[in-house]
């Protein structure tokens, strides 16, 4: 466990101004030792006759980014952040916050409790609590509306969006934007302010009560319409802002406190917090002990199809130079069209200005000459999923790539170690598995085989992080790890769904049950979107165990030419302007005939049966991956499922869901749901496995 710094807060002095300096790397989170330190330093400065004003400042890259999220599951320790903010606000001497970096959550609440705010030009401010299923709980819901008005306050709290220093000054969140040196200018400012100015006494925004009340009511209706009547934290935020308008601040703070407590103990918030830490834990690769990521300035991508172009866009968006290699002129032109169309769409939607779009494209070099990859620090092969094709290409890449370059294959199923061998430089070669659409999907799996060097792995990780992706390590070894984590789980998910389809459920019933659970799309909608032919081609190549149950429905559909959205027909029909499609009656008829042919008497599945069977199949596949050492931690599986496959983030992930379910329930559901399908659950004793992994994980975290 990380040790808290011994002195996370120091009291400094410049003339008659005292500086309370927070120093709690990396992000100055406001854990209990910091809160105690601030309170002590503040009290000392208040007691000192030679101090006329007090600045709260922070060392390092940022003003506090919030409360310490890890403390939310612990017993409360005083002073709470709310108590600290009250102490700051009631100070008898002027208190000025000097803000740099990102003042988020509790950090901004602390700044708002100060009497004045000075910020660096590059600073940003926001209240992102909603993204963790909570609300500002240290007075933020009461002080922000007093400073900037209830409507803007609701905008900030209901989106979690950050505002720049310039905007903050415009809307009244900060009093001064420093021109150059924040600390120096804050001290000068402090010597000009004469007396405290408690935020709770700001009245201007509370006076137009009637107009604001109508605006708040309208916002409540909008939240309910968009998120449903049970959207806990968003509705509580609206209630708290309403309280700010109607009640004295002391009462408003009490309303906020009880709303915060209800949210922080909710399953939704626990899930969102788990997802936050899972993403960060996944990026901790064991190779970090041996190597640091090398800088990637230029990336070469071979293959400008949907995947290659998507990776190119993601890299361009992050400011990298890209060399995109296609086979011939036709390939070059279609890649250019695809990337151009993306930029046109982004410009049309107002996400980019024309100038930004044009500037990004100047960093793109499109060519059909493989020898131009020689300047790239990383070369990614993203051609069709065919072993011969990839192996030959990788051998050529190894010839032209510079000796320090890392070589990556975007394979999702092929034998990674054999592909690495084909380069003749296996130590430089790793897997980098992006998910379509690569410019938007946040997940990247880093496939690590036993001969890969720590340097190659870390450089690939650094690249994925530079693209803003959540990177998860998949260890491919001893025949384990085909399909890495994501596709192995997806296969189990699809298999569980297909068995229910064959036994009596319909595609739309299964999709509906999974959407109801929280997935944006059900498995058959995803199949239609991806194109049934892709998975079909893979199945044809894959050896099949004669003992495993096999469902031929999807194969029969491909043989009929029903490929999903691309052919207008799949599990759904996509004509007549139905974007989501309407169930394809021919498929239902075909399934009925198929059952009759196999002698299957259809039975009914409740939505709960569907959901549980699929979730248990996912969890079981996850447990197996942990047992095989492909995934390092249960939370890595959660990160993959949330980012790559749309598992509802507010549930944290499937492994968190399994952990939250008592083993006896899992056991009884397993035996009730699928006693006849051992292949569905596999031989992995899921419960023992989970218990073991939980213990391992707990041990890791207490070292
Ligand atoms: N409490 C505890 N730990 C926090 C934290 C918080 N509020 N915010 C960040 N951290 C930790 C991260 O877990 C990470 O720890 P690790 O190095 O052990 O993995 C470390 O600080 C750095 O964070 P990271 O997210 O990797 O850095 P970044 O530069 O990419 O992003 C932030 C920085 C602040 C934008 C991002 O961490 C963030 O959004 N934090 C949450 C902010 C928030 O929601 N505040 C409101 C809570 S009240």
Automatic annotation (TrEMBL):
Domain 3-hydroxyacyl-CoA dehydrogenase NAD binding positions: 299-474
Locations listed in the record: Peroxisome
GO biological process: fatty acid beta-oxidation
Reactions accelerated catalytically: a (3S)-3-hydroxyacyl-CoA + NAD(+) = a 3-oxoacyl-CoA + NADH + H(+)
Domain 3-hydroxyacyl-CoA dehydrogenase C-terminal: 483-574, 612-665
CDD domains: crotonase-like
Molecular functions per Gene Ontology: (3S)-3-hydroxyacyl-CoA dehydrogenase (NAD+) activity; enoyl-CoA hydratase activity; isomerase activity; NAD+ binding
Keyword Thylakoid: no
Pathway the protein takes part in: Lipid metabolism; fatty acid beta-oxidation
Record keywords, A-Z: Fatty acid metabolism, Isomerase, Lipid degradation, Lipid metabolism, Lyase, Multifunctional enzyme, NAD, Oxidoreductase, Peroxisome
InterPro entries with a match to the protein in the record: 3-OHacyl-CoA_DH_NAD-bd, 3HC_DH_C, 6-PGluconate_DH-like_C_sf, ClpP/crotonase-like_dom_sf, Enoyl-CoA_hyd/isom_CS, Enoyl-CoA_hydra/iso, NAD(P)-bd_dom_sf
Record family assignment: Belongs to the enoyl-CoA hydratase/isomerase family.
Subunit (UniProt): Monomer.
Protein name stated in the entry: Short chain enoyl-CoA hydratase /3-hydroxyacyl-CoA dehydrogenase
């Amino acid at each position: 466990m990380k040790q808290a710094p011994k002195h996370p807060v120091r009291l400094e002095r410049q003339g008659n101004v005292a500086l309370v300096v927070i120093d709690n790397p990396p992000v100055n989170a406001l854990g209990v030792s910091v809160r105690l330190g601030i309170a002590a330093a503040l009290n000392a400065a208040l007691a000192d006759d030679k101090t006329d004003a007090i600045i709260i400042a922070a060392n390092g890259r940022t003003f506090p980014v919030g409360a310490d999220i890890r403390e939310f599951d612990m017993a409360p320790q005083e002073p709470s952040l709310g108590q600290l903010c009250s102490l700051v606000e009631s100070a008898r001497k002027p208190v000025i916050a000097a803000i740099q970096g990102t003042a988020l959550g509790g950090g901004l609440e602390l700044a708002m409790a100060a009497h004045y705010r000075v910020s660096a030009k590059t600073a940003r401010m926001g209240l992102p609590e909603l993204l963790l299923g909570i609300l500002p709980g240290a007075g933020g819901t009461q002080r922000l509306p007093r400073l900037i008005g209830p409507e803007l306050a609701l905008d900030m709290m209901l989106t979690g969006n950050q505002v720049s220093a310039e905007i903050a000054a415009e809307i009244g969140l900060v009093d001064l934007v420093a021109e150059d040196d924040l600390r120096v200018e804050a001290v000068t400012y402090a010597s000009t302010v004469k007396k405290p100015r408690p935020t709770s006494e700001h009245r201007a925004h509370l006076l137009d009560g009637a107009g604001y009340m109508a605006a708040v009511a309208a916002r409540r209706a909008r939240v309910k319409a968009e998120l449903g009547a049970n959207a806990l934290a968003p509705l509580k935020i609206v209630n708290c802002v309403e309280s700010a308008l109607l009640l004295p601040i002391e009462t408003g703070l009490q309303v906020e406190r009880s709303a915060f407590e209800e949210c922080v103990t909710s399953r939704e918030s626990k899930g969102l917090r788990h997802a936050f830490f899972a993403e960060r834990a996944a990026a901790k690769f064991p190779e970090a002990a041996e190597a640091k990521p090398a800088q990637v300035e230029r990336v070469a991508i071979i293959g400008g199809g949907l995947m290659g172009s998507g990776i190119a866009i993601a890299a361009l968006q992050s400011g990298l130079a890209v060399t995109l290699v296609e086979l011939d002129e036709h390939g070059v032109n279609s890649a250019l069209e695809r990337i151009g169309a993306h930029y046109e769409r982004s410009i049309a939607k107002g996400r980019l200005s024309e100038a930004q779009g044009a500037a990004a494209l100047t960093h793109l070099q499109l060519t059909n000459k493989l020898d131009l990859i020689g300047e790239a620090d990383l070369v990614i092969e993203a051609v069709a999923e065919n072993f011969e094709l990839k192996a030959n290409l990788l051998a050529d890449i190894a010839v032209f790539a510079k000796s320090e370059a890392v070589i990556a294959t975007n394979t999702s199923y092929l034998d990674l170690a054999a592909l690495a061998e084909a380069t003749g430089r296996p130590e430089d070669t790793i897997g980098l598995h992006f998910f379509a659409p690569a410019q938007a999907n946040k997940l990247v799996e880093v496939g690590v085989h036993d001969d890969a060097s720590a340097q190659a792995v870390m450089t690939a990780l650094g690249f994925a992080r530079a693209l803003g992706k959540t990177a998860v390590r998949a260890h491919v070894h001893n025949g384990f790890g085909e399909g890495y984590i994501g596709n192995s789980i997806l296969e189990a998910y699809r298999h569980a769904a297909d068995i229910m389809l064959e036994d009596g459920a319909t595609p739309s019933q299964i999709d509906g049950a999974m959407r109801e659970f929280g997935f944006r799309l059900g498995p058959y909608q995803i199949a239609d979107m991806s194109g049934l032919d892709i998975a079909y081609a893979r199945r044809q190549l894959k050896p099949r165990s004669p003992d495993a149950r096999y469902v031929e429905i999807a194969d029969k559909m491909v043989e009929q030419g029903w490929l999903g959205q691309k052919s207008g027909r799949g599990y759904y029909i996509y004509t007549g302007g139905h974007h989501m499609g309407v169930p394809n009656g021919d498929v239902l008829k075909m399934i009925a005939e198929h059952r009759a042919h196999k002698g299957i008497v259809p039975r009914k599945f409740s939505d709960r049966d569907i959901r549980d069977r699929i979730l248990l199949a996912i969890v079981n596949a996850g447990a197996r991956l942990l047992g095989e050492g492909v995934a390092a931690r249960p939370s890595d599986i959660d990160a993959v499922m949330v980012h790559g496959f749309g598992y509802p983030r507010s549930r944290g992930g499937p492994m968190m869901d399994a952990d939250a379910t008592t083993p006896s329930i899992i056991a009884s559901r397993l035996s009730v749901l699928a006693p006849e399908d051992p292949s569905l659950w596999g031989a992995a004793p899921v419960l023992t496995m989970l218990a073991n992994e939980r213990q391992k994980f707990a041990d890791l975290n207490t070292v």
